[in-house]
Write a structure and sequence with these properties.
This protein is mainly beta. It has 7 helices and 56 strands. The chain has 8 domains: 117 residues, Immunoglobulin-like; 104 residues, Sandwich (Immunoglobulin-like), CATH 2.60.40.60; 107 residues, Cadherins (Immunoglobulin-like), CATH 2.60.40.60; 98 residues, Cadherins (Immunoglobulin-like), CATH 2.60.40; 103 residues, Sandwich (Immunoglobulin-like); 103 residues, Cadherins (Immunoglobulin-like, Sandwich); 44 residues; 63 residues, no CATH class.
């Protein structure tokens, strides 16, 4: 019959009704359906093709240990996988819902599904005992009520107990009371006084009937013993006592005090309070009733979430030999407190996310719940604000953790995300749950050289095949994305590719010379180096290496003037033209090297008459040191050495022969005449010398006097202006383009220091300066009057 009933119910509900409300699919099915019973067509309700269920990895996710539902991937039908007993699944809850989640990939979709389990009338009402005994005094007036034990029916709604009936009799009727929780309780109503002498015992049959179709029922016998004598029953102050108490109060807290009165006297008026039998075990654990005072106190832990109201049936029994009982009800309302922190349930979608993931990529699905009521159960959820993630709230109490912003593995490769939830209490209770998310690398960083350009100094005449330099590039990406290879880009050097001169190690960036380089042919060239990673697609960067070739002293000086043959030359001189300082000839040499390696000096190694000649150390000028005498030999031979300033020094030597020509215009008589004229005019010359010397001496005295006078005037002016002109013209330093011309404070006289190019400048990369006057020291620059030396 139960199977037929369930089949009928499944037919009535058309094997499940589906609707889509706020994004959630809902079905309704009756309980007790057999395996394979139709629930709904998932494919049609999701508007999917049946073949998509397999291709998109369709799966059914449930929080229950038992897999009550299953989906046929061939036709998309949701069917019953295991028999559902609503009473076992949801007990006495008014609603019973199975919560499922449908998940599909590519793209990821999560669809919540709620299957409402409808109750069928598969349980009959039952009593805890088959017989109940009552003692009722014969003097009880009509209208008295006697509570009866309620029957139990696991079904809910209309299928639970709807009414009570008793077998026909002339004294009693039954009244059905509806409690606040919707349950029914029967009370015997005395309509006609009892007469023990006529009937000392009344047997009734109590029937409990549920509201199902068809109805189900259960019975128990009520055996009533009619008592004599004690004709007044205890009477409570109130039929219903109401009390309100906060959950989780301390044990021993007073709930309320009940009180009853008995109009009898003596022991018949002495009352004892107790809970009406049978009392549920849970009530006895939570509340304690003092039998003498009627105080009801808390003795267990109250929990609003377990029950928000308690209905206590109490009675007062007198102490007569034939006791009479009075009855009342205590309604205890429980006030909720914020004693439950929110609960967070996280379903991870992905433990790793690419650093180039778009904003809005789903990382996890989060659901939060709080068993408290009202504002205490209103939960809010958040993640820290300093991370590129956020929460979206598509459905109430359901969140999605998604990316929010740009991820950069090089800045943060790992995130510990703490999800925090708090309720609406004051103070609020909170819960946190960590989620670990790893950011995976993509090739988004090009290699970077430590410098954009390098200067490499290479000594000429280098050995081919030797490492001459190295470049380094860094890539912050990982694995293949950070693996760097080096190469040289095409670049022309003297009509040849740079690869003809150097090569680079592709792994470590070491640069090797392929040939020996001559400074005199190639002083500078550039290499363009590229660093490229192994990512897909690869990324690269370039750097310039400036190769500066350094000179070596590998070229000896060469004499270019005078022309030599076999390292010797001949120069003719006329004796009468030679005087001290007379320039006989100038030796000019060159050196293919540069800098100090090309700075030349000249040295006289040997001479026929060393007292006759002097050689300029740097100029190479050969000058006479005296007049030629008749006894001098006709041919003078010099050996001159020219050497550079390199390390080691290179040199060349040459031999210069000076041929002294005869004075063809001179005769002996002329020599005699000259001597005679010298003797003849000797006194006149002495007079002239004396006159000229005296005049010069007087002129010198006048000049010295004028100079001293002028200096005193200048000194006086300088002292007067020294306080207001602390920075005079002497403190001014000339700029690089200013002439070396210095002017005094009053522009009265000019101070000038003249410099000349040194002969070494023609052989060097540097500019050598020297004072034109050899007697002027450098430390007198700008402070000594040099007019006299002009």
């Amino acid at each position: 019959m139960a199977s037929a009933l369930m089949s009928g119910a499944s037919f009535i509900f058309l094997l499940g009704l589906s609707d889509l409300v706020s994004g959630q699919i809902r079905y309704s099915i009756p309980e007790e359906l057999e395996h394979g019973a139709f629930v709904g067509n998932i494919a049609e309700d999701l508007r999917l093709n049946v073949w998509e269920l397999s291709s998109r990895n369709f799966r059914l996710v449930s929080d229950d240990i038992k897999q009550y539902m299953e989906v046929n991937l061939e036709n998309g039908i949701l069917f019953v996988n295991e028999r559902i007993d609503r009473e076992q699944l949801c007990r006495q809850s008014s609603t019973c819902t199975l919560s499922l989640q449908l998940a599909l990939d590519n793209p990821l979709e999560i669809h919540p599904v709620a299957v409402k389990i409808l109750d069928v009338n598969d349980n009959s009402p039952s009593f805890t005992k088959s017989e109940f005994f009552l003692q009722i005094s014969e003097i009880i007036a009509p209208g008295a009520r006697f509570p009866l034990e309620s029957a139990l029916d696991p079904d809910v709604g209309t299928n639970t107990i709807s009414s009570y009936q008793i077998s026909p009799n002339e004294h009693f009727d039954i009244k059905v009371q509806t409690r606040r929780d919707g349950s029914k309780r029967g009370e015997l109503l005395l309509e006609k006084p009892l007469d023990r002498e006529q009937q000392s015992m009344v047997n009734l049959v109590l029937t409990a009937i549920d509201g199902g179709i068809p109805h189900r029922s259960g019975t128990a016998r009520i055996i009533i013993t009619v008592l004599d004598v004690n004709d007044n029953a205890p009477l409570f102050d109130y039929e219903v006592y109401k009390a309100t108490i906060v959950e989780n109060v301390a044990q021993g807290t007073l709930v309320t005090t009940i009180n009853a009165a008995d109009l009898d006297e003596g022991t018949n008026a002495e009352l004892t309070y107790s809970f009406t039998n049978p009392v549920p075990q849970r009530i006895r654990e939570l509340f304690k009733l003092d039998p003498e005072t009627g105080e009801i106190r808390v003795q267990g832990v109250l929990d609003f979430e377990a029950s928000n109201v308690y209905e206590l049936d109490v009675q007062a029994v007198d102490n007569a030999s034939e006791s009479i009982t009075g009855h009342a009800t205590v309604m205890v309302d429980i006030i909720d407190t914020n004693d439950n922190a929110p609960e967070i349930d996280v379903t991870l979608v992905s433990l790793a996310v690419r650093e180039d993931a778009r904003s809005g990529t789903v990382i996890a699905l989060i659901s939060v719940a709080d068993p408290d009521s009202g504002e205490y159960g209103q939960v809010q959820c958040k993640v820290p604000g300093n991370i590129p993630f956020k929460l979206e709230n598509p459905l109430r109490s359901n969140y999605k953790l998604v990316t929010d912003g740009i991820l950069d593995r090089e800045s943060a490769a790992f995130y510990n995300i703490t999800i925090s939830a708090w309720d609406g209490g004051s103070p609020p209770l909170s819960t946190s749950k960590p989620i670990s998310v790893t950011v995976t690398d993509v090739n988004d960083n090009a290699p970077r050289f430590t410098q954009s350009s390098y200067n490499m100094y290479l000594m000429e005449n280098n050995n081919p095949g030797v490492s001459i330099f190295d470049v380094t590039a860094l890539d912050v990406d990982l694995n293949q994305n950070g693996k760097i290879t080096y190469s040289m880009l095409e670049n022309q050097v003297r009509e040849l590719s740079a690869s003809a001169y150097v090569t680079i190690n592709s792994k470590n960036g070491n640069i090797y010379a392929l040939r020996s380089i001559d400074y005199e042919q190639l002083k500078h060239f550039q290499i363009k180096v590229q660093a490229q990673d192994a990512g897909s697609p690869p990324m690269s960067s370039t750097a310039i290496v400036n190769v500066i070739v350094l000179d070596q002293n590998d070229n000896a000086p060469v004499i270019v003037s005078p022309l030599t043959s076999n390292s010797s030359t001949s120069v003719e001189i006329v004796p009468q033209s030679v005087y001290p300082g007379y320039l006989l000839t100038k030796v000019i040499a060159t050196d293919a090297d540069s800098g100090q390696n090309a700075r030349l000096s000249y040295q006289l190694l040997e001479a026929t008459d060393p007292s006759l000649f002097t050689v300029g150390l740097l100029s190479g000028e050969i000058k006479a040191t005296r007049y030629l005498r008749d006894q001098d030999i006709v041919t003078e031979r010099l050996v001159l050495c020219v050497k550079d300033n390199g390390q080691p020094t290179l040199s060349i030597s040459t031999t210069i022969s000076f041929s002294i020509l005869s004075n063809v215009t001179e005769t002996l008589p002329e020599r005699t005449d000259t001597a005679r004229q010298s003797e003849y005019f000797g006194d006149l010359n002495v007079y002239l010398i004396i006159i000229l010397g005296s005049t010069s001496f007087l002129f010198l005295i006048i000049i010295i006097f004028l100079v001293v006078l002028k200096l005193k005037q200048v000194s006086t002016i300088a002292e007067n202006d020294s306080r207001s002109k602390s920075n005079n013209a002497f403190s001014r330093r000339p700029g690089p383009n200013d002439p070396l011309n210095y002017t005094g404070p009053a522009q009265a006289e000019g101070y000038r220091y003249t410099v000349c190019l040194s002969p070494e400048s023609s052989k060097s990369d540097f500019l050598f300066l020297k004072p034109c006057h050899p007697t002027l020291p450098f430390n007198d620059l700008g402070v000594r009057d040099t007019n006299a030396t002009k």
